[in-house]
Specification:
The protein has 443 residues and is an all-alpha fold. It has 15 helices and no strands. The longest helix is centred in the first third of the chain and has 32 residues, at 43-74.
Length: 443
C-alpha cells in the first residue's frame, strides 16, 4: 500500500477554520426536484460520483461474471461461497488498520492506491481467462487481493464524502451515494448477463471492469485538493499505528451514539439482510413463482432501495437516533409481514418496502456517524462500521441457512424478523445518551 508519509506530503491539507481560515462562500440551494442533488453543486463531488458510477457498474458486472465462471469451472455452490468468503476475510482482518490509514494520509491518495490495486486485480483475472489458463486457485488469490484492497478502500471512501461536500451537504451526499450503489446494482448484473449471452463467455466482463476503474481514477486525479473541506488534525505527539487503533476503538466504545448505531444496525443487518438466501427460497417454495418470480422479487427489492435513496436525497432528512431506530423497527415489522405472506402481489409490495426501509435506516445511520465523529477520527469510526457490517454478511448467511433448513423459509425468516424487532426495541430503550451525543454534535 501507500508508503508511510506524513499528511503534509502530497496534496496539502486545508487548514481548519479554527486556524483563522474563512469558509468559502455558500452556494444557493436548488429548489423543486433539483433539491435532491444539492451535493452536485460541488465540482469535486460531481467528478467523484460519476467516476464511481462507471466503476461500480463494472464491479457488479464482474461479480456476475465471476459467479458464472466459478460455476462453469466447478459446478459447486460451495466454491461460490468460498470465493465470496475470501473477499470478505481480509476486510475482517484489516479494516481497522484501513481506518488508521484513512485518518493518517490524504484520503484521495489512499483511494488512488486502492482503486489502482482493484484495477490490477481485474486485469490479471481478464488475462488469465482470455488465455484460457485460469484455475480455481488463481481466483482464490485474486479474491484475497480484492478483499485486501477493500479493507483500506471502504473506510477511506466513506470518510472522504464529508471532505468533498462539507457538513452542510453531507446528508444529501450520503443519500446520493446510496442511490449510486443501488443504481449500479440494478444496471451492472443485468448488463453483465446480456454481455455473457451476447459474447458467449465472461472474458469481456472482466476487461470492461478493468477499464471502468479509469472513471474513478481520472475523477480522483482531477479533484482539486484546495477545494476539499477543512479537516482538523489532532495536535500533540504523533501516534504509532497501534496507539491510533486503540484511540479509535476507545472513542467508539465511549461514545453512546456511535456504539448504539454500530450495535443496533449491525445486528439488524446480521439477522435480517441476507436476501441471497431467503428470496430464492420464497420464490420457489413459498410463493411458487419460479425463476420469473425470483427475478421480480429481486428487482422490486433493488428498486425500493433506489427509490428510498433518491427520496432521502430530495428530502434532506437530518440524521437523528430516533429516525434510525424507527427505520429499523419498521424494517423488522415489514420483514415479519413478508415472512407470513403467501400472496405474490403482496410479497412483491412488501419486499419493495423492505428495500426502502433498509436503505433509509442504513443511510441515516451513516449520516449520524459522520456527523458525530470528529474529523481526525472519522476514518477509524468508519472502519469499525465497515468491520461490523461486513462481518455480519457471512455469519448472517450461515444463520439464515440454518434456520431455513430447520424450520422452513417462512418460520425461519419470521424468527429473524423478531430478532430484528427485539434489537431495535432495545436500542429505543437505551437511546437517550445517544440522542444527547447527536444534539451536541449538531451545535
Amino acid at each position: 500500500m501507500q508508503s508511510h508519509s506524513p499528511p503534509s506530503q502530497g496534496a496539502p491539507a486545508p487548514k481548519s477554520l479554527a486556524e483563522g481560515e474563512t469558509s468559502p462562500p455558500q452556494k444557493p440551494r436548488a429548489a423543486g426536484l433539483l433539491r435532491g442533488f444539492t451535493a452536485f453543486r460541488h465540482r469535486n463531488y460531481r467528478l467523484y460520483w460519476f467516476g464511481q458510477l462507471v466503476s461500480l457498474v463494472g464491479t457488479f458486472m464482474q461479480t456476475t461474471g465471476l459467479a458464472w465462471l466459478v460455476l462453469q469451472m466447478t459446478h459447486s455452490a460451495w466454491q461460490l461461497g468460498v470465493v465470496g468468503a475470501l473477499q470478505f476475510l481480509p476486510v475482517l482482518l484489516f479494516a481497522l488498520f484501513g481506518g488508521v490509514f484513512a485518518d493518517r494520509w490524504p484520503k484521495r491518495q489512499v483511494l488512488l492506491v486502492t482503486q489502482s490495486t482493484a484495477m490490477l486485480q481485474a486485469l490479471l483475472l481478464w488475462a488469465l481467462v482470455d488465455r484460457g489458463v485460469v484455475q480455481v486457485w488463481h481466483i482464490y488469490i485474486l479474491a484475497l487481493l480484492l478483499g485486501l484492497a477493500s479493507s483500506f478502500d471502504q473506510p477511506a471512501r466513506a470518510a472522504f464524502v464529508v471532505e468533498l461536500v462539507g457538513r452542510e451537504d453531507l446528508p444529501n451526499a450520503v443519500a446520493l451515494n446510496s442511490s449510486l450503489s443501488n443504481l449500479a446494482y440494478v444496471v451492472g448484473p443485468g448488463l453483465g448477463g446480456l454481455l455473457i449471452a451476447a459474447s458467449g463467455g465472461v472474458t469481456l466482463l472482466f476487461l470492461l471492469n478493468a477499464i471502468s476503474f479509469l472513471g474513478v481514477l481520472i475523477a480522483l486525479a482531477l479533484i482539486r485538493p484546495q477545494e476539499l473541506s477543512a479537516q482538523a488534525r489532532p495536535s500533540g505527539e504523533r501516534q504509532n499505528t497501534w496507539q491510533s487503533l486503540r484511540e479509535g476503538v476507545a472513542y467508539v466504545r465511549n461514545t453512546p451514539a456511535v456504539l448504539l448505531i454500530i450495535l443496533v444496525v449491525g445486528l439488524v443487518l446480521l439477522f435480517g439482510a441476507n436476501y441471497n438466501v431467503f428470496v430464492p427460497l420464497f420464490a420457489t417454495n413459498v410463493l411458487h413463482a419460479g425463476a420469473t418470480g425470483y427475478g421480480a422479487l429481486s428487482a422490486a427489492l433493488g428498486l425500493g432501495a433506489l427509490f428510498s435513496a433518491l427520496w432521502l436525497a430530495w428530502s434532506h432528512r437530518r440524521p437523528t437516533i430516533r429516525r434510525v431506530l424507527i427505520g429499523a423497527l419498521l424494517y423488522g415489522a415489514l420483514e415479519a409481514a413478508f415472512a407470513v405472506s403467501h400472496l405474490f402481489p403482496l410479497s412483491l409490495a412488501l419486499i419493495f418496502c423492505l428495500g426502502m426501509a433498509e436503505t433509509a435506516f442504513g443511510a441515516l445511520a451513516v449520516m449520524t456517524l459522520q456527523t458525530v465523529a470528529p474529523d481526525h477520527l472519522r476514518g477509524r469510526v468508519t472502519s469499525v462500521y465497515v468491520l461490523c457490517f461486513t462481518g455480519s454478511i457471512p455469519l448472517g448467511y450461515l444463520l439464515t441457512g440454518w434456520l431455513a433448513g430447520q424450520y422452513g423459509a417462512s418460520i425461519g425468516l419470521f424468527i429473524l424478523a423478531l430478532l430484528c424487532l427485539l434489537t431495535a426495541g432495545a436500542g429505543w430503550f437505551w437511546r437517550k445518551p445517544a440522542e444527547q451525543d447527536v444534539a451536541a454534535a449538531s451545535l
